[in-house]
Specification:
- With about 290 residues, the chain is of the alpha/beta class.
- The protein has one domain: Alpha/Beta hydrolase fold, catalytic domain (Rossmann fold, 3-Layer(aba) Sandwich).
- It is about 35% helix and about 15% strand.
- The chain has 12 helices and 9 strands.
- Strands 2-1-3-4-8-9 form a 6-stranded parallel β-sheet, sandwiched between helices.
- Strand 5 and strand 6 form a beta hairpin.
- Helix 2 packs across helix 3.
- The two termini are about 20 Å apart.
Length: about 290
């Protein structure tokens, strides 16, 4: 395997006249496959800054378009929680190894994928995500959000889908993101179907067997700090990472987000209970 060029933050040299750069080499055992799942109104494009960074760390990454989003043309009235989960299970089943599934904001489908296919997952990672209590729906949590945020929803006449107003997206989804990213993202946002949010969710020991991690966003204007703490406890998160970002760290703090993902990948690889440890982690060479 050829050495990979390290990120700038990992480029180090020894002191003295014979200093040489770190040899940044990833064995297959250190790599991971990430399946990245977007939240409401968005699609796989929201991970555009994350995928190349993960690959630079030696990982594989796939960003999904859930049914009714992005390139997927499923009619909104046909989009269900089961359709989301089926698409996600298909993605992890296509991976050559157990995948790390990352769910942003809309955590329900991720937890249901862990329930449906625990043997295909090395870990699940919730990023500022909603995790309903057993027997409840994501909409039960959304109903408790800031009324000013909820006022940014533009409902379809049948109230079976909703858009977010452009001003609301800028204020709540992307307040700390680069202006060019915000402009592009707002132009791509599409209506969000309500059906998946109304579905009561249930999990058993199957989902609990998959190691869970939570990435909290300290300046999130949608999912409050209090709510995130409750979600972390509900997820029984093995570890919590906190990033000084808004609700969309894939744009506002991609380096910090990928650093957390990389750390999770290395920790997961060294977990013998998941059956993916292939060889010891090599030392960096100076």
């Amino acid at each position: 395997m050829q050495p990979l060029s390290p990120p700038a933050s990992l480029q180090r040299t020894t002191k003295g006249p014979q200093a040489v750069p770190v040899c940044f080499i990833r064995t297959r055992a250190q790599m991971a496959t990430f399946v990245l799942v977007h939240g409401a109104w968005q699609a796989g494009w929201c991970w555009d800054d994350v995928v190349p960074r993960l690959r630079a760390h030696g990982h594989q990454a796939v960003a999904l378009d859930l049914p009714g989003h992005g390139a997927d043309t499923t009619a909104l009235h046909q989009v269900t929680m089961a359709a989301y989960v089926d698409a996600m299970v298909s993605a992890v089943n296509s991976a050559a190894e157990r995948a790390i599934m990352v769910g942003h904001s809309m955590g329900g489908p991720t937890m249901q994928t862990a329930e449906a296919a625990p043997d295909r997952l090395a870990a699940v990672v919730y990023v500022a995500a909603l995790i309903p209590a057993d027997g409840t729906a994501m909409l039960d949590i959304v109903g408790g959000f800031d009324p000013d945020y909820l006022a940014q929803f533009d409902w379809a006449p049948d109230r079976r889908s909703a858009r977010i107003l452009p001003a609301g997206a800028r204020t709540y989804l992307y307040p700390l993101c680069p202006a060019d990213r915000v402009h592009d993202a707002v132009s791509r946002l599409t209506p969000e179907p309500v059906g998946p949010y109304e579905t009561p969710l249930f999990t058993t020991a199957r989902a609990a067997s998959v190691p869970a991690y939570y990435v909290g966003c300290l300046r999130d204007r949608i999912v409050s700090r209090e709510t995130q703490l409750a979600m972390q406890a509900r997820a029984s998160a093995r570890r919590v990472f906190e990033i000084d970002s808004d609700h969309s760290p894939f744009f506002s703090a991609p380096d910090e987000l990928v650093a957390a993902f990389d750390e999770i990948a290395q920790e997961t690889r060294l977990d013998p209970t998941r059956g993916v440890l292939e060889c010891p982690r090599p030392k960096r060479t100076f």
